[in-house]
């Protein structure tokens, strides 16, 4: 074998190694994508468990929400009648935008969303100290992950965050665990979390109340829900962290995010619903790297 041939072989080996590494990276990306899809299907299928639905119904103040919904329907009916009268009055200078009467189911959904965000579920960046009750970022800080217990795993928490407390009592000791539960029934008990927990628990309540519900994840960092409005014949975006309903461009226009995928998981299967959430769908698809 001469020197040229040796060099050629060595270059070829290098090229093969690079190609194999790139292919392994692609496999990792595909495996991660598939794993998220499987996780979503499992999360949603648990929402239809009879016991999970019964637990959900036990925490919802249904009579109150129904009363609030009836008031909302009455108000929307009056607004619709006033708008119709204004439109019929030719002398009216500028007719108001068409107000429509809302259905009881849609009104109850709006009141459920408001109650959930304002009164029921709490945002949790860092949990208060389990030993002395101290809270706030100057005292309680995340020091990494800690292994899940059997009980954590039983409620779908494979990730558990550990927090140290800097109060005089705790003196920097690691005192507090924050299991990131994936079990909606458990979340209805702890009533705290970040967007994943908000959307999971809210979707569970919607399913229990009989709404056709989807759990939606984007491929960046956010999770929300969609609920089918039978009266409007379409899916309504519902973000329980924001008390926002039917504002699908909230993320791109409001938050300045660039979405790559928004995937909805529901009883009817898994669906790419990205188009509803982006300003320019063609540009979004062109920018996808996976
Ligand atoms: Zn403490």
Automatic annotation (TrEMBL):
Protein known as: Predicted protein
Keyword Cell membrane appears in the UniProt entry? no
Family label: Belongs to the transglutaminase-like superfamily. PNGase family.
> Where in the numbering of this chain does the Transglutaminase-like domain appear?
187-242
Q: Which superkingdom?
A: Eukaryota
The protein's matches in PANTHER family, at most eight in alphabetical order, are given as:
PEPTIDE N-GLYCANASE PNGASE -RELATED (PTHR12143), PEPTIDE-N(4)-(N-ACETYL-BETA-GLUCOSAMINYL)ASPARAGINE AMIDASE (PTHR12143:SF19)
Could you list this entry's UniProt keywords, alphabetically sorted: Metal-binding, Zinc
What GO molecular function annotation could you give as one example from this UniProt entry?
A: metal ion binding
An example Gene Ontology CC term for this record: nucleus
């Amino acid at each position: 074998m001469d020197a040229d041939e040796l060099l050629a072989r060595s270059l070829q080996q290098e090229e093969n190694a690079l190609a194999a590494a790139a292919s392994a990276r692609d496999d990792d990306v595909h495996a991660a994508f598939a794993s998220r899809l499987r996780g979503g299907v499992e999360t949603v299928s648990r929402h239809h468990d009879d016991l999970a639905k019964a637990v959900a119904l036990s925490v919802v103040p249904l009579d109150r929400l129904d009363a609030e919904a009836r008031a909302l329907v009455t108000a929307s009916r009056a607004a619709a009648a006033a708008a119709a009268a204004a439109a019929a009055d030719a002398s009216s200078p500028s007719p108001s935008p068409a107000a429509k009467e809302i259905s009881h189911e849609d009104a109850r959904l709006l009141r459920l969303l408001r109650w959930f965000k304002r009164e029921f579920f709490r945002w949790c960046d860092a949990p208060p100290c389990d030993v002395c009750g101290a809270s706030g970022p100057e005292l309680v800080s995340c020091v990494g992950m800690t292994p899940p217990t059997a009980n954590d795993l039983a409620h779908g928490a494979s990730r558990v965050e550990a927090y140290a407390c800097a109060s005089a009592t705790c003196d920097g000791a690691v005192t507090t665990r924050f299991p990131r539960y994936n079990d909606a029934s458990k979340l209805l008990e702890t009533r705290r979390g970040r967007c994943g927990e908000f959307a999971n628990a809210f979707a569970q309540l919607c399913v229990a109340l009989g709404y056709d519900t989807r759990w939606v994840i984007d491929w960046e960092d956010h999770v929300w829900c969609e609920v089918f409005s039978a009266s409007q014949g379409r899916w309504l975006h519902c973000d329980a962290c924001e008390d926002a309903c039917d504002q699908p461009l909230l993320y791109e226009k409001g938050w300045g995010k660039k979405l790559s995928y928004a995937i909805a998981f529901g009883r009817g299967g898994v669906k790419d619903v990205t188009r509803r959430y982006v300003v320019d769908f063609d540009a979004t698809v062109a920018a996808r790297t996976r």
